[in-house]
Design a protein that fits this description.
- This protein is mainly alpha-helical and 106 residues long.
- It has one domain: Cytochrome C3 (Alpha-Beta Complex).
- It is 50% helix and 8% strand.
- It has 7 helices and 2 strands.
- It has a two-stranded antiparallel sheet.
- Strand 1 and strand 2 form a beta hairpin.
- The protein starts with a helix and ends with a helix.
- Bound molecules: heme C (3 copies).
Length: 106
């Protein structure tokens, strides 16, 4: 047991992160979300993680999985633009882009 813990700690030091940070998969730093006719939406994921801290702000609506939004839409469990409304609501209240073409890029 003790060796396993020590190995985890060494691995943590080697990767330059704490053991708890290894356990959490933070996903891609930047991604592009499918955005329909207006064009797709580039999204700085890690920037939001550091500003917001709480993963649940977004992931209470969709899972921490690639293609999670599209999957729920296909199952009818997520409305079109439901995620977008969440992005917009926060940007209007706090900061961040709010014009269509600020987010949607062709
Ligand atoms: C501001 C919104 C937002 C926040 C906050 C957020 N995420 Fe995400 N995350 C997304 C979006 C959007 C996707 C893409 C979903 C898709 O592909 O349909 C995603 C996808 C992911 C994925 C799968 C994609 C990949 O690259 O592997 C993981 C893992 C993930 N997030 C982890 C986290 C963790 C951990 C946190 C908190 C530290 C977090 N996210 C905070 C919006 C957010
Ligand atoms: C803060 C960024 C942001 C802004 C501003 C924004 N969108 Fe979006 N939009 C998204 C994201 C992310 C998606 C994909 C997720 C979803 O459908 O909720 C999306 C999806 C869409 C879709 C496709 C929905 C589907 O499922 O086919 C349309 C159409 C759309 N937006 C139109 C607009 C229009 C029109 C405006 C301006 C009034 C606008 N968007 C402003 C981020 C944004
Ligand atoms: C709970 C709050 C919150 C949510 C939800 C949120 N954002 Fe943001 N976003 C911010 C804040 C705050 C900034 C401003 C960051 C800065 O300029 O320092 C920002 C900035 C941005 C930027 C500009 C980044 C830059 O480099 O200037 C983009 C693009 C963006 N958000 C896209 C999105 C998309 C797409 C979604 C939904 C999938 C989303 N955001 C959801 C708070 C949020």
């Amino acid at each position: 047991m003790k060796t396993k813990l020590i190995l985890t700690l060494i691995l943590g030091i080697v990767l330059g992160a704490s053991p708890t940070a290894i356990a959490q998969n933070k996903g891609a730093a930047d991604m592009v979300i499918k955005g329909g006719n207006l064009g797709d939406v580039p999204f700085p994921h890690h920037l939001h993680q550091s500003i917001l801290g709480d993963c649940g702000v977004c992931h209470s609506l969709f899972p921490q999985a690639k293609g999670g939004i599209e999957g729920l839409k296909a199952q009818g469990k997520l409305e079109k633009k439901e995620v977008m409304d969440q992005c917009q609501a926060c940007h209007k209240q706090e900061a961040g882009p709010t014009k269509c073409t600020d987010c949607h890029k062709k």
